[in-house]
Amino acid sequence: MDADDAQTLRRLLDTQRVGALGTLHCGEPAVSMVPFVLPAGDTRLFIHVSDLAPHTRAMQEHPRVSLLVMAELRGDASPQALPRVALAADAVTLARNGRDYETARAVYLDRFPDAADTFELGDFSIVALLPVSARLVAGFGRAYGLVGDALTDWLRR
């Protein structure tokens, strides 16, 4: 992957505010929309979810999830050529009394200040998505896979 493609794809995680979260719910694939944040220098993405949502229960039962983040479709561009990042990740709910929770809460509220009220509700949790692999598509014929140190380095950019 050249530096331009790497930067374009990484920038998606900084500029796009929502992703499609794929979970296994009652033995069936399910997709939902979640706002997310990837703090600078970190490799974990944070989502803030309600215990009442099916995807939250699904993550608790089957913590391996996927998150798809893609560029916006503009003009008459081909949807198949849209830059996109698909992450396979392990979902870990953060303990409310931990330092990680407070750090995640601060960066989440920095990106989504209107979510402050939901942090006061007892049924909301912060879930860290710990990526284990990535499928990156920069356009036609420009698809890449990342795991291990290469994935960590790319996420921390």
The SSE order reads HEEEHEEHEEH
Q: What's the rounded overall pLDDT mean?
A: 94
> Pairing-aware structural class of the strands and helices?
alpha+beta
The total strand number stands at 7
| Helix amount | 25-40%
What sort of overall outline do the alpha carbons produce when their principal axes are compared? globular
N/C terminus separation: 15 Å
Rg over alpha carbons = 16 Å
Which percent band covers the strand fraction?
35-45%
Major sheet description: 7 strands, antiparallel
Please give the count of helices.
4
Structure write-up:
The protein has 157 residues and is of the alpha+beta class. The chain contains four helices and seven strands; from the N terminus they run αβββαββαββα. It has helices spanning 3-15, 54-61, 99-111, 148-155, and strands at residues 18-25, 28-35, 45-50, 64-70, 84-93, 124-139, 142-147. Strands 1, 2, 3, 4, 5, 6 and 7 form a seven-stranded antiparallel sheet that branches. The longest helix is centred in the N-terminal third of the chain and has 13 residues, at 3-15. The protein is globular and about 45 Å long.
